[in-house]
């Protein structure tokens, strides 16, 4: 039996991501799966925001940072093969993925330590997820949240209204939440088809 061609989409957050699997075609996408995946250790809350020492304070302890970042990598490097195995077991062949992120700003360009901590975390989770996907042979694209719909309109050849209508339709088959994060992850997967 041949596996159906599918694509992954992620809305990357701090310590976790919405993961969507879409198959079908650009004109007729079909939602296969919607779930959350861990990018941090759920038993260690410090790994969810590894660059925060406390509320509003940038972590400066190199030993703590190294341990937290290593934990993020280990969890992500487990989550992605688990996700891909589930896809394969469900009859899907995944070769492409796209990540929707809040920003790709260089953290070193940010003077405010608290905002820099958020930027460092954004870069860490994005880069770690992208590396884990690429190590499994998955090609990745990165989209910034504010540009996702205009980019999709150009790539898919549809208006924003048409895209939103299709995303709303896809969400009708989901047993769980279908909010902005799920829609963005689905849009990313759809663009990856």
Strand content: 25-35%
Order of helices and strands: EEEEEHEHEHHH
* Uncertain stretches: none
Radius of gyration: 17 Å
Q: Biggest sheet, in brief? A: 5 strands, mixed
Walk me through the structure:
It is a single chain. The protein is built from 5 helices and 7 strands. It is an alpha/beta fold. The strands form 2 sheets. The protein has a 5-stranded mixed β-sheet, sandwiched between helices. A two-stranded antiparallel ribbon has the order 4-5. Helix 1 runs parallel beside helix 2, helix 3 packs parallel to helix 5 and helix 4 packs across helix 5. The two termini are 21 Å apart.
Quickly list its features.
alpha/beta, five-stranded mixed sheet, two-stranded antiparallel ribbon
Layout of helices and strands, plus pairs?
Elements lengths: L3 E9 L3 E9 L4 E10 L13 E3 L2 E2 L3 H28 L2 E10 L11 H23 L3 E6 L3 H9 L3 H12 L8 H13 L1
Parallel strand pairs: 1-6, 6-7
Antiparallel strand pairs: 1-2, 2-3, 4-5
Helix pairs in contact: 1-2, 3-5, 4-5
């Amino acid at each position: 039996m041949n596996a159906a061609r599918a694509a992954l989409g992620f809305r990357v957050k701090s310590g976790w991501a919405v993961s969507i699997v879409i198959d079908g075609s650009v004109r007729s996408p079909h939602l296969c799966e919607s779930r959350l995946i861990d990018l941090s250790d759920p038993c260690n809350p410090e790994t969810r925001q590894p660059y925060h020492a406390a509320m509003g304070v940038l972590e400066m302890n190199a030993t703590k940072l190294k341990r937290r970042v290593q934990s993020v990598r280990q969890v992500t490097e487990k989550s992605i093969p688990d996700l891909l195995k589930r896809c394969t077991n469900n009859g899907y062949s995944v070769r492409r993925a796209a990540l929707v992120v809040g920003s790709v700003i260089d953290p070193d360009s940010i003077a405010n330590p608290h905002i820099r901590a958020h930027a460092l975390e954004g870069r860490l989770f994005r880069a770690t997820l992208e590396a884990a996907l690429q190590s499994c042979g998955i090609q990745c694209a990165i989209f910034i949240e504010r540009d996702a719909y205009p980019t999709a309109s150009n790539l898919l050849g549809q208006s924003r209204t048409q895209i939103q209508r299709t995303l709303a339709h896809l969400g009708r088959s989901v047993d769980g939440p279908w909010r902005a994060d799920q829609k963005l992850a689905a849009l990313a997967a759809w663009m990856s088809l």
